[in-house]
Design goal:
By secondary structure, the chain is α/β, with parallel strands linked by helices. It has two domains: 179 residues, P-loop containing nucleotide triphosphate hydrolases (Rossmann fold, 3-Layer(aba) Sandwich); 126 residues, no CATH class. The chain contains 16 helices and seven strands. A five-stranded parallel beta sheet has the order 2-5-6-1-7, sandwiched between helices. α6 links the parallel β5 and β6. The longest helix is centred in the last third of the chain and has 18 residues. The radius of gyration is 23 Å and the shape is elongated. The chain starts with 11 loop residues before the first helix and ends in a 5-residue tail after the last helix.
């Protein structure tokens, strides 16, 4: 059975390694899909588990399999995502956003979720040749969860576990050593543009700041463009063409934290750094913005951060 990654573009090495594993029927008990975010790791994992769960190599069977997995109702697949703890419950990023939960700390893969993996793998697969577990953003795993996962990887049973991570550095070396590594790389500018056009995002290709900010990641390009669309145009215009007087800049500094939450402010700083470098290549603007990012991450009062930043930025853009 030959695997077909129809929508995975710009990752020939990963596609080749996974296709060979299936063609030769040499499936490892654990894989590590590693590389920057937004370049096809999750999509590749979904294709891979779809084929691993299949008993028939027909388009009709694979279409049914894909639909069931997308709906999350396949008994032999467990897809684990980072969660927030809220009022005794674990909420995914999507659930937390839908319920309006304030997120002060990043989400984590928690020990409770690793215990769920262990329980899931304690029974034999019901419909597929093997049980399948995908751990999205495994690099956001708490220490206790990582130690628990290590025990599971030592005796996975009749299963294949896929850890998806943006970097190996945040993972235990013993976890990395027990996984077959599948590397993913940032796309070339040409391939990035091709992927975005194929998905209906032609407007992004015509936005040089967003394309540069994406650094070869279609996912990051789309996320950046959506962030940009959510930012009030008049606020963005004022930040790209700073008002000349200190009084006007102080008024603008007051408006920013009133309009945007802290994560969006941090994203905006990165966007402005890229914008000013592309258009002016001036350290007068880049250095204050870099200091602003560090200050916000250190929980300095946002209005004060923006007041100092906008007054420090050069006026000769």
């Amino acid at each position: 059975m030959s695997i077909k990654f129809e929508e995975v573009m710009g990752q020939p090495q990963a596609v080749r390694l996974l296709s060979q594993a299936i063609d030769k029927n040499r499936i490892a008990p654990a894989y590590l899909f590693v590389g920057p975010d937004g370049i096809g790791k999750r999509l590749s994992a979904r294709y891979f588990v779809e084929y691993l769960a299949s008993r028939e190599d027909t388009p009709e069977h694979l279409a049914r399999m894909r639909k069931r997995m997308e709906q999350g109702n396949h008994p032999d697949l467990l897809w684990v995502e980072p969660t927030y703890q809220h009022q005794g419950q674990l909420l995914s990023v999507t659930q937390a956003k839908a319920e309006g939960v304030k997120r002060k700390a990043p989400p984590r893969i928690r020990i409770e979720q690793v215990r769920e993996i262990s329980q899931f793998l304690s029974r034999p697969p019901l419909e597929s040749p093997r049980s399948l577990v995908a751990i999205d953003r495994a690099d956001l795993m708490a220490e206790g969860a990582a130690n628990g996962l290590l025990k599971t990887l030592e005796e996975p049973g009749q299963a294949t576990i896929i850890a998806i991570a943006s970097s190996e550095a945040a993972l235990l070396p013993t976890i990395v050593s027990r996984c077959t590594r599948i590397p993913f790389y940032r796309l070339s500018p040409e391939t990035l543009a091709q992927v975005l056009r194929s998905r209906g995002y032609e407007k992004i290709v015509d936005h040089p700041t967003v394309m540069a900010l994406a650094q070869g990641s279609p996912g990051e390009a789309i996320a950046a463009f959506e962030q940009l669309q959510a930012c009030p145009p008049e606020l963005l215009q004022s930040l790209q063409n700073l008002p000349p007087t200190p009084r006007e800049r102080l008024t603008l500094a007051k408006t920013i934290p009133q309009t945007l939450d802290t994560p969006t402010q941090l994203w905006l700083i990165g966007y402005l750094q890229q914008f000013y470098w592309q258009n002016h290549q001036s350290s007068q603007t880049l250095q204050p913005l870099e200091k602003a990012s560090r200050a916000l991450l250190s929980y300095v009062q946002p209005r004060l951060v923006w007041e100092v930043t906008l007054l420090a930025m050069g006026s000769g853009q």
